[in-house]
Amino acid sequence: MGTTVSERQHRDARDTRRRLLEAAAALFAERGYERATVRDIADRAGANQALLFRYFGSKSALFGEVIARNGEEQLRTTPPHELLEAALRGLLGPGGKEPGGRALATLLRSVDSGDEIGTAVRAISDGYARVLASLSSADNHELRADLALSWLLGIGMMRVLVGKEPLADADPDEVCALVTAALGTLLDGLPAADGRP
């Protein structure tokens, strides 16, 4: 039995929507929200701008879905004890090669892009913070998680946006080793090397 016209259209619509999301994720990670145009996203996806607006309604709604999709993918597929390193590697790599790894880099490139985007940023940040908080048994585990996430985003900002040397060209393995050791201490609630909590 062959597929009906309706089934083919539905499958084509899903494929077009997926291609638009993938193109948007790549362009937002490369350029940030403001510099990624609707036309460029549609062109990269092999679609037209009208379809982008039909499926997502607006560029900011598309961005929110990209952030949610990429961040949720990383949160869903990464064991909690590996999330710090996975998120950090996403920031240290060239724009992040995997969609989940691009989530924080995309956030960084788009931090000042408006209220709708702020909502998406807060939602995914809350997801990361919840997972990070689960790694700590300390009474102030939520604060520790927010501090860890803030440090990751600060590292990403200095490397990705500012290009601060020597961080901008530092070996990702070395940065990961240093940062995960320090953040592990913070999240585990263990005393620092000097004995202070």
From TrEMBL:
Source superkingdom: Bacteria
DNA-binding region as annotated in the record: 37-56
Protein name stated in the entry: TetR family transcriptional regulator
Keyword terms, alphabetized: DNA-binding, Transcription, Transcription regulation
A Pfam family that the UniProt record links to this protein: TetR_C_16
A GO MF label: DNA-binding transcription factor activity
Source organism of this protein record: Streptomyces malaysiensis
Ranges for domain HTH tetR-type: 14-74
